[in-house]
Design goal:
Blueprint (H helix, E strand, L loop, with lengths): L11 H21 L2 H8 L3 H15 L17 H30 L2
Length: 109
């Protein structure tokens, strides 16, 4: 297998952070059942949570949340329901990495 070295994209890090923020917001909505409850949990305004999820939706080219007037129960669209388990796993994995890094840092050099 041949690997190639690519020059880093300067916007790549920002895109990763935006996706993670969107995933966190999406998972919070899924767990809490509403944008308002997710916003309270994350200490954000509901419009911020909606914006983060919309940004993720644009990046994924999928609608993850139901809009007002759409049929169904709960806040997630069909695509959102299908992606939620993996999104939750990804957010939990990042949280675990952050917690472990913090424990390692606390141990010192």
């Amino acid at each position: 297998m041949v690997s190639t070295v690519r020059r880093p994209d300067r916007s790549g890090g920002v895109q990763v952070i935006r996706k993670l923020q969107g995933l966190r917001a999406f998972v919070a909505v899924a767990r809490r059942g509403s944008v308002r409850s997710a916003a309270r949990e994350q200490h954000y305004d509901p419009s911020t949570v909606r914006s983060q999820v919309r940004s993720l939706e644009q990046q994924l080219r999928l609608r993850l949340l139901r809009r007002h007037g759409e049929e169904g129960t709960g806040p997630l669209s069909r695509a959102g329901e299908q992606l939620e388990p993996e999104a939750e796993h990804a957010v939990d994995a990042v949280d675990e990495v952050e917690a472990k890094a913090s424990r390692i840092a606390d141990q010192g050099p």
